[in-house]
Specification:
The chain has one domain. Helices cover 68% and strands 3% of the residues. It is mainly alpha-helical. It is globular and about 50 Å long. Helix 5 packs across helix 8. The N and C termini lie far apart (41 Å). The chain contains eight helices and two strands, in the order αααααββααα. It has a two-stranded antiparallel sheet. One of its GO terms (cellular component) is membrane.
């Protein structure tokens, strides 16, 4: 139950934060102000992880093994999220958040439940079920967020009638991020960094601005 709770937080906090972006103005400084939210959360995680502030409920809800020091790793990842919100608040930021939350978050939930018999050949810690869930979940969330921001007028694409026309590009972003998440490199490069970073880079390169 704790692992499910942690992943539900992982999967929902990003899109909920992104959906608050329209509350900010169109000022060039607005993404920086939006980034204050994850940055403040990073400070809270750092305080709890270092023992300065005690919050057993927070530790139980977001840590893998129940140790407070795990939050220090999450603190670094949250800083990454703050940077992404500030520097890639357009399509790249939306796709990055989608792959990290709707993709990676769903992959763990589905993989644990249905992945026991379909482990990946290059990484037995991952499964085909989890990777497929990441691909579909990340793509669906990305298209949903792109559609939302397009309908609100924040995104305009002269060469596309709407976000669904960009499905091939979004699928490429999702596929590359899914491949990166499946690689046996998490002990060296945390996928909380690599997945959104790769997704954002490909989204910026492939999606119109």
């Amino acid at each position: 139950m704790q692992k499910l709770s942690r992943k539900l937080v992982h999967a929902t906090v990003g899109p909920l934060f992104v959906m608050a972006w329209p509350l900010f103005s169109m000022s060039p400084s607005a993404p920086m102000w939006a980034a204050v939210v994850p940055a403040a959360n990073a400070v809270r995680l750092a305080a709890v992880g270092s023992g300065v502030w005690e919050d057993p409920g927070l530790v139980a809800s977001v840590s893998r093994e129940g140790g407070r020091r795990e939050l220090l790793k999450l603190e670094a990842s949250t800083h990454t999220g703050a940077w992404q919100a500030a520097a890639a608040a357009g399509p790249g930021g939306l796709v990055a958040v989608s792959m990290m939350c709707g993709g990676d978050g769903l992959a763990d939930i589905v993989g644990r439940r249905y992945g026991a018999t379909n482990k990946l050949a290059w990484n037995p810690a991952k499964s085909a079920a989890g990777s497929l869930a990441m691909l579909l979940g990340g793509t669906t969330m990305a298209l949903g967020l792109l559609t939302l921001f397009w309908s609100l007028g924040y995104l305009t694409w002269s060469q596309a009638r709407g976000p669904l026309d960009l499905l091939p590009q979004v699928l490429v972003c999702s596929a590359v991020a899914t491949l990166v998440e499946s690689l046996p490199i998490n002990h060296v490069l945390d996928d909380n960094w690599t997945v959104p970073l790769v997704a954002a880079v490909f989204a910026v390169a492939l999606l119109p601005t």
